[in-house]
Amino acid sequence: RAKERGAGHVEVYAAHMHDTVVSRLELQIRLRQALAAGEFFLEYQPIVDLDSSQVTAVEALVRWNRDGEVVGPDDFIGAAEESGLIVPLGEWILREACQKVAVWRVSDWDIGLSVNLSVKQVLSDRFVSTVETVLADSGLPAEVLTLEVDEEVLLDDVGEAVLRLGELRALGVMLAIDDYGMGYASLAHLRELSVDAIKIDPLFTADLGRDDTVTLLTHTIIQLGRDLGVQVVAEGIERSEQLEQLRTMGCDRGQGFLVARPMPASGMESLVGGESGVNL
Ligand code: C2E
Ligand code: MG
Ligand code: MG
Ligand code: MG
User: Fold this and answer.
1) Domain EAL, which positions (predicted)?
2) HSE of 31 in the Cβ direction (CA atoms, 13 Å)?
């Protein structure tokens, strides 16, 4: 478009591009320093069994303490992926979360852990052995760990990614497809991968009971999960009507602000030894 408007506009456009590239590079450098300086931390969001309201697992979610301001993953995971920092950062996240949950489990709390992975990480060298080492070091049993991957993992470089996920599963860890529902991960793929869980996209949960197509699709996904023996987790539960509807549809697990917000480890620790259930 700049071309049509003449030379002056081309310059403005180029300068803008330059700014974007520079600030992106600056962010990448800052992230690398942040990892070295220990500025990342994890929050944990409970996942509950919808029948019993018991907390069955927690999902680890990374945050960055940038000069006292908390920055969420949507603002830096992309840059970390581009620079390759996601590999050491992802390893730190996995190690930190596994160690924490292993300690909670020693306090007699039978809780599982979910950790998000980027495709870049899955495809990186030695990723499978990293997971194996972290499990051995933390003493966390493999079957307690669920690794969450986005549907895009199945689009990216299908053969390679599927191979890696198969190796991970062979370690005994569980696999979950995150934000399921946008239509990429076909039934065949789920079979091929033998995933253990699918997490329904929060966009579906948001429109549950308000949009007939979404409600029908959600019901279909839950049914599909049942037929395949795959656990179904609904994400983004904010209102009690959504919770009731999901229960009626036979959804296994749920997660969302109505249940509990993501919280620092200390918040989770106040649940340890308690009822480890939530009032729903
Ligand atoms: P996700 O894996 O789908 O995680 C769920 C996101 O939804 C989290 O956002 C969580 O705080 C938010 N959430 C939970 N319940 C509700 C709700 O009821 N309503 C609404 N509106 N939101 C809710 P967060 O922590 O900002 O993370 C965003 C995404 O960043 C994650 O989506 C995940 O894809 C990615 N991410 C987070 N931590 C990591 C990590 O350690 N590694 C990698 N590779 N990606 C991560
Ligand atoms: Mg997730
Ligand atoms: Mg995700
Ligand atoms: Mg999700």
Assistant:
1) 24-276
2) 27
Report d(CA 236, CA 149) in Å as an integer. Answer: 17
Question: What ipTM was reported for this prediction?
Answer: 0.98
Tokens 């990723």: give the residue.
127
pLDDT for position 150? 87
Determine the distance separating the centroid of ligand 3 and the alpha carbon of 153, expressed in angstroms. Answer: 11
Query: How far is it, in rounded angstroms, from Cα 124 to Cα 136?
Result: 20
Q: Ligand 1 atom closest to Cα of 93? A: 41
What's the CA-to-centroid distance between 172 and ligand 2, angstroms?
Answer: 19
Q: Is the dihedral of CA 235, 71, 117, 113 positive or negative?
A: negative
Q: How far is CA 90 from the centre of its chain?
A: 12
For the chain, what is the radius of gyration of the CA atoms?
A: 20
Does residue 256's CB lie within 6 angstroms of at least one atom of ligand 1?
yes
Alpha helix stretches (DSSP H) within 58-126: 77-83, 86-106, 119-122
Its pTM stands at 0.92
For a ligand 1 pocket test, name from 35, 41, 61 the mutation site with the most ligand atoms within 8 angstroms of its C-beta. 61
Of all ligands present, the nearest one to the C-alpha of 74 is 1
What is d(CA 12, CA 5) in angstroms, rounded to the nearest whole number? 11
Residues, CB within 5 angstroms of ligand 2 (ion): 116, 148, 178
Residues of the chain predicted below pLDDT 50 = 1-4
Residue 56, both tokens: 């069955």
Cα 244 to ligand 2 centre (Å): 22
Q: What is the pLDDT of residues 50-99, one digit of tens each?
A: 999 999 999 999 999 999 999 999 999 999 999 999 999 999 999 999 99
Task: Determine the 3-state secondary structure of 180 from DSSP.
Answer: strand
Looking at residue 2, its pLDDT comes to 43
